[in-house]
Amino acid sequence: MDPLRVGLTGGIGSGKSTVAKVLADCGAAVIDSDAISRLVTSPGGTAIELIAKQFGPQFITPEGAVDRDAMRQLVFANAGAKKQLESIVHPLVGEEAARQAASAESSCIVFDVPLLVESGRWRQRVDQVLVVDCNEATQISRVMARNGWTRKAVESVMAGQASRNQRLAAADICIYNDAPMSLAVLTGTVRQLAQRFGL
């Protein structure tokens, strides 16, 4: 029997990574697209040569990785550059995610994809979309506390992501993780969901 394929997404600061960890603890095979993205843009990564060719060597560090700060500034200011970067990185992430999924040994494979709704490619690759949701004020306060970012920096990241309504419209299942939900309550909710997933 084929494993259940779940696409997990949520805005920055929603608690998506916590949900992914609990599902992994319950036995799901979690494939982290952010981790794969970091891998392909690290020294020796499959995206490096293509990025250097597209954007120039000034976006590659002396160690041979993508200069994340320089690239972040460029793509936030330039939608065209963002699309170009995504056209390089996303297919490589998709290939590696498919490879990891093919070798996974679990009845449930969870694809942790922050930009699942935005990409337009993931919906047909998964059986169900699980969205971790909270209100925008909670997102901002969590990320400011966690990352030490300014409100403006958090808001600029959020502006580049799907809106809360767009994510909710794409959801088959939604976990509402807003204050004052405790970690214990969130964990219990996810464990119940894991049982529904056959874990």
How does this model look, in words?
With 199 residues, this protein is α/β, with parallel strands linked by helices. The chain contains 10 helices and 5 strands. It has helices at 16-25, 33-40, 48-55, 68-77, 79-102, 116-119, 136-147, 151-159, 164-170, 183-196, and strands at 4-10, 29-32, 108-112, 128-133, 173-176. Strands 2-3-1-4-5 form a 5-stranded parallel β-sheet, sandwiched between helices. Helix 1 packs across helix 10 (183-196), helix 3 runs antiparallel to helix 5 and helix 4 packs across helix 5 (79-102). The longest helix is centred in the middle third of the chain and has 24 residues, at 79-102. It is globular, with a radius of gyration of 17 Å. The model has no long low-confidence stretch (mean pLDDT 91).
List the strand order in the largest sheet. Answer: 2-3-1-4-5
Average pLDDT level: 91
Strand content: 5-15%
* CA-based shape: globular
Largest sheet: 5 strands, parallel
Radius of gyration: 17 Å
Number of helices, counting only DSSP H or I runs of 4 residues or more: 10
Termini separation comes to: 14 Å
Structural class: alpha/beta
Q: Helices and strands, in N-to-C order?
A: EHEHHHHEHEHHHEH
Name the poorly predicted regions. none
What's the count of strands? 5
| Fraction of residues in helix | 40-55%
